[in-house]
Sequence to fold (357 residues):
Amino acid sequence: MNRVGAFLFLARCLRRDDRAALGRVDWTRVVEIASEHWMTLALYHALADKRVLDTLPSDLVEYFEYLHEANLARNQGILEHVAEIAVLLNEIGVEPLLLKGACNLASGLYPDPAARFLYDIDILVPEDRSLECWRHLLSSGYRRIPNEDCPEDLPVPEWPALIREERTAELEMHRIGEWHDMLGSPELYANTLPVALPRGNARMLDPTGRLIFAMAHAFVHHRQPFRATANLRDLYDATLLLQKYGAQIDWPRVIHAFESAGEMTALRRGFLIWRRFFGQNPPCAVDSPARVALYWPRCLLHIAKPQLATIWNLLEMNWNVRDLRRSLLRPSVIRRKLRFAAGIWGRPSVADPVKEK
Fold:
């Protein structure tokens, strides 16, 4: 079982309506892929839900159970931390908006509260109160991660994470002004709902907004030119949102959000990956993305050869790939490259001892 086969098997296991017949499985490879995508415990829950754990190697089940117990305790600590953040910000009249995994965990989206690994807590605060919130948290015992180069009193556009002693997970505080893509649209945050916490008051986006945010975060915010990635965690969250809130999701609003941002290509790509990995068609009419014959193989290449994807992403961060590609495809450049190649093929190789004679 190669990496692509293991990834597709993992995605099939995560499907709610797929029995995922096991057969011969390279569990080492499958768990390796699941770990890379932070989906190990989601896999464990899916296999338990399908009642196939008794067919797995006993040491693998023990590994799953150990991780489950540890992550359940961690997520409970994260929920307590989220409540504490809410209480602190409530003191100055701010109700934070929970985002991403912290929102999904607090709202009970995950069928198993231990199924999702969370690295940090993402919240959104009002733009005009953001610096006040930042200073209040610092005065309440939060501090920046050591060695992060950022002045404490006047943060840079993307604010650094905050930590507090004896609290689980880092805190990432966001405001709309830091995002220069569709995540920075105020319209996305117009409809919010209260979220139940052990104490304190916080809010979350409505189901449509959460689905828009999940898809935009995966296929717009972290997108780079020509990059094709699986984004399994975000799509898993989107699948759960559809299962739990399907009747409440306003699909015309989803389409409008991406159309108005000029990001329909991103949404088409997201829906393509969603269909192929989870075998599920979102209930709205969206065409397949242009050049799908190129995008899908690139996505599989990203799974098969993550080292190549890393190198490619580093190139994208250091060069304007679009301009580079345009310059390399100029006719004069192509002719020069062809002449150079013809010259290499036409002359003897100094490394070939037969030809040297």
User: Anything to note?
Assistant: Confidence is low (pLDDT under 50) at residues 344-357. The radius of gyration is 24 Å. Residues 308-343 form one domain.
